[in-house]
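User: Reviewer 2 asked us to show a designed sequence for the structure in our supplementary figure. I'm pasting the structure tokens here. Could you produce the per-position amino acids so we can include them in the response letter?
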């Protein structure tokens, strides 16, 4: 029978289906077998081999051993596999599959894996996973190797950097008896000692050296976060590394975070720095929490982006809604009272100091001349918030709306009227005296000047422009020459919509704050987030009352900051941020 049967080994035929099976065993060595399928579908052995591990290779991680076995087998079978269009590689180590099939060299962070994968570049292979119980031939060869590693086998795993590392290691070892070596790194020594004493790092080291299980559920719950990076983990001289990054033991992570954040940079920049050198599970979220809880960084946070414009409803009648404000120039104080529909301004000089009594007298005269408004919008000046003013407005049935303190934009209509009146007084008078022809003529022209919608305050108020010192034909005062009111209203509405859209391009809607929420409060003068308060009142126009706004200290410093919102309070507008939630 032996004379009529073919031998165990068959001749290689590049046209047949070719499979290379490899395996590695830490207790044994490396094994491989090269098989081809004949015309009858039977697998024929072409070549096989095994060898022991060298002393350095015996300390490789499992994934490194498995890839080493493949690289060694391909080198031994290169006479057959070199130049083949495609051959299959069978391995029982599942994490190797993406490294061999889909990942590029740049995506492999483990230097040893990257170097071994580079040695497979001449071969066009397809990696396939097979269960260990079906991987019989290479498993048996790896458990009972017969050959010792040849010098060229060990040299294949070395490069200049490893030779340099060996020289440096020898120098450190030789100089140990002569005292402290200049090559010793105190930080690495600290990490190595902490890793050797911490149960999590001890278990992780054993897992790297002995191999990860097939499924994540089989892992110790403490080690499951490392599952996603299992193909990048290795052990080097008592240190666990993830690619080029050092795995920090839990006992040193807080101190490492403080060192990473020593420059007090933002979350993203700190993350980029950490990704260069260190790793542990949930590193990004720990950095976000640490930076968010840094008191110095919170105190110097930038102000919030403005929120979308809140346009006012246009009044239906003149002097139905009005605005008022004070301004000072040339040692004099002036009161500006403006209609929100027409823009018609009244400017009066205040003799002496502006008081609530003087304000009430001025408002009484204006009400008698123009009618009683339904709403009066002012800032929170003491003249407007005095008890005498409040009682006067209550008797006349006027709703008093106070704008947001330290936020002039919320009373923008009055601010615009003040700007126009102040500019007129500065240019038309030398001392702020209103009883002059120059000022009176200037004010008249101001009331006659058309706005962007085509109508002047005088036209809105009286239906026609007022005669002034500027020559004008009588037709200019005829109704037929006046623009249709509907067209002007449509133009004004379009202009208001365009203004809101242009404003909102650089604005962002913030989340609403709730009653009882703990917040950081920004000083409007210094811009520092140096106070803490609790929301005690919520208004209708994004205004909030945080109380009590007290200076922060270590006892009441918020643990984290999640997101922010521009908010105001009375009597002083303060910008606040979220401070009672935990970062992701």
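Assistant: Here is a per-position design you can include in the supplement:
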């Amino acid at each position: 029978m032996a004379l009529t049967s073919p031998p165990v080994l068959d001749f290689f035929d590049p046209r047949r289906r070719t499979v290379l099976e490899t395996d590695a065993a830490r207790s044994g060595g490396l094994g491989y077998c090269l098989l081809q399928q004949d015309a009858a579908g039977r697998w024929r052995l072409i070549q096989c081999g095994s060898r022991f591990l060298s002393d350095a290779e015996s300390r490789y991680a499992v994934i490194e051993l498995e890839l080493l076995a493949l690289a060694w087998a391909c080198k031994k079978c290169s006479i057959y596999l070199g130049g083949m269009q495609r051959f299959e590689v069978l391995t029982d180590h599942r994490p190797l599959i993406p490294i061999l099939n889909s990942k590029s060299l740049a995506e492999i962070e483990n230097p040893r894996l990257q170097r071994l994968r580079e040695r497979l570049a001449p071969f066009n292979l397809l990696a396939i996973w097979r269960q260990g119980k079906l991987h019989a031939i290479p498993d048996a060869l790896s458990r009972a190797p017969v050959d010792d590693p040849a010098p060229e086998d060990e040299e294949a795993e070395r490069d200049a950097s490893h030779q340099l590392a060996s020289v440096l290691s020898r120098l450190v070892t030789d100089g140990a008896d002569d005292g402290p070596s200049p090559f010793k790194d105190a930080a690495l020594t600290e990490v190595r000692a902490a890793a050797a004493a911490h149960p999590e790092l001890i278990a992780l080291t054993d897992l790297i050296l002995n191999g990860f299980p097939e499924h994540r559920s089989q892992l110790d719950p403490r080690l499951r976060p490392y599952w996603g990076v299992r193909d990048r983990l290795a052990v080097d001289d008592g240190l666990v590394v993830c690619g080029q990054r050092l795995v920090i033991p839990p006992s040193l992570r807080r101190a490492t975070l403080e060192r990473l954040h020593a420059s007090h940079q933002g979350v993203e920049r700190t993350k980029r720095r950490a990704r260069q050198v260190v790793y542990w599970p949930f590193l990004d979220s720990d950095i976000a929490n640490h930076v968010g809880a840094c008191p110095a960084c919170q105190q110097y946070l930038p102000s919030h982006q403005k929120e979308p414009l809140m346009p006012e409803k246009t009044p239906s009648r003149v002097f139905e809604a009005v605005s008022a404000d004070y301004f000072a120039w040339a040692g004099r104080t002036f009161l500006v009272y403006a209609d929100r529909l027409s823009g018609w301004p009244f400017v009066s000089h205040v003799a002496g100091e502006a008081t609530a009594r003087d304000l009430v007298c001025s408002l009484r005269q204006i009400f008698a001349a123009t009618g009683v408004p339904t709403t009066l919008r002012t800032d929170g000046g003491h003249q407007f918030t005095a008890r005498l003013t409040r009682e006067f407005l209550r008797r006349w049935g006027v709703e008093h709306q106070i704008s947001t303190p330290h936020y002039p934009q919320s009373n923008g209509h009055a601010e615009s009227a003040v700007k126009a009146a102040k500019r007129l007084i500065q240019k038309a008078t030398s001392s702020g005296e209103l009883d002059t022809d120059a000022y009176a003529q200037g004010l008249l022209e101001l009331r006659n000047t058309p706005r962007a919608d085509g109508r002047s305050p005088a036209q809105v108020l009286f239906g026609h422009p007022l005669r002034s010192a500027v020559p004008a034909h009588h037709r200019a005062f005829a109704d037929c020459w006046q623009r249709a009111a509907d067209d002007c209203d449509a133009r004004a509405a379009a202009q208001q919509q365009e203004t809101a859209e242009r404003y909102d391009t650089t604005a962002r809607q913030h989340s609403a704050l709730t009653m009882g929420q703990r917040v950081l409060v920004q000083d409007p003068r210094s811009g520092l987030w140096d106070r803490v308060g609790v929301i005690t009142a919520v208004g209708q126009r994004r205004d909030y009352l945080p109380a009590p706004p007290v200076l922060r200290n270590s006892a009441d410093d918020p643990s984290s900051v999640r997101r922010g919102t521009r908010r105001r309070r009375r009597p002083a507008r303060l910008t606040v941020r979220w401070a009672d939630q935990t970062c992701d």
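For the response letter, you might also mention the following. The CA atoms of residues 332 and 432 lie 7 Å apart. The first helix runs from residue 62 to 76.
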